[in-house]
Amino acid sequence: MSCLLKLKRVKKSSNEGKKAYSDRRKNDFANMISKPLEYKGLPVYFNKHNEGIEKCYSKFIVGNEMFHSTKQPDFRRLERLEWIYEIIEKADECGTCYEFREGIERGKNLIYCVNKQYLIVLKKEHSHYVIITAYSVSNDKKQQQKYLNMHL
């Protein structure tokens, strides 16, 4: 079975400054999170979505301040924002793919796309899921192996 995902990185154009690129990606992100999304039959929301687009966007381009103390955007995260939506949207179909893993760790649902080495962490609330974080693990062989071997 070939991969159903059409994951493409949205890169900064050669004539675009970092601020312009970040602003463009923020608009893309705002459009993306305004669309309904479901996982396992329940609605999915982005972490901090109820605190406004600035805080929500910052959460997904900078990450956890404990690990990203500079508070500067991670351009690898910026390039891959749409991956979050597309992977969750196709999770049911991708569950049959050998390049896809799901698991539960410390009460959180994990979705791992082996092909792109990309991890999404969700937390189930009462009647919905919240996307806690999402990031590439392509530079971390230990995490790649850990998520490759996980099962529900």
Can you put this structure into words, describing what you see?
With 152 residues, this protein is α+β, with helices and mostly antiparallel strands. 34% of the residues lie in helices and 22% in strands. It has 6 helices and 6 strands. A 6-stranded mixed β-sheet has the order 1-2-6-5-4-3. A hairpin with a 2-residue loop joins strand 3 (100-105) and strand 4 (108-113). The two termini are 21 Å apart. The model has no long low-confidence stretch (mean pLDDT 83).
What structural keywords apply?
single chain; 152 residues; six-stranded mixed sheet; 34% helix; alpha+beta; 22% strand; 6 strands
Q: Brief overview, please?
A:
This protein has 152 residues and is α+β, with helices and mostly antiparallel strands. Helix content is 34%, strand content 22%. The protein has 6 helices and 6 strands, in the order H-E-E-H-H-H-H-E-E-E-E-H.
Strand order of the largest sheet: 1-2-6-5-4-3
Topology pattern, helix = H, strand = E: HEEHHHHEEEEH
Number of strands: 6
**Overall 3D form:** globular
Radius of gyration: 15 Å
What structural category arises from helix and sheet content?
alpha+beta
N-to-C CA distance: 21 Å
Largest sheet data = 6 strands, mixed
The number of helical segments is 6
Which percent band covers the strand fraction?
A: 15-25%
Q: Mean pLDDT, as a whole number?
A: 83
The low-confidence runs, each spanning 5 or more residues with pLDDT under 50, are none
The proportion of residues forming helix, as a percent range, comes to 25-40%
